[in-house]
Amino acid sequence: MNKDTAQGNWLQFKGKVKEQWGKLTDDDLDIIAGKRDQLLGKIQERHGITKDEAEKQVTAWHEKNPTNFFERY
């Protein structure tokens, strides 16, 4: 995968994440950079939910939006 493809995939991924968890900022997503544990922490922080609830939400979202993004980046 070339750099342009990876960049485009990341932008699509960020857009889908922001649709689901609107309180996350672009800066948050730049820090997350595809790391699942970072995403969980930021969702907890911004949305005021527990780790278990964040995990449930991310798992449900991932089932609806299948991607191997977390495994690739």
UniProtKB/TrEMBL annotation:
Gene3D superfamilies: YjbJ. PANTHER family: UPF0337 PROTEIN YJBJ. Belongs to the UPF0337 (CsbD) family. This is CsbD family protein. It holds the Pfam family CsbD. SUPFAM superfamilies: Hypothetical protein YjbJ. Residues 4-56 form the CsbD-like domain. It comes from the Bacteria.
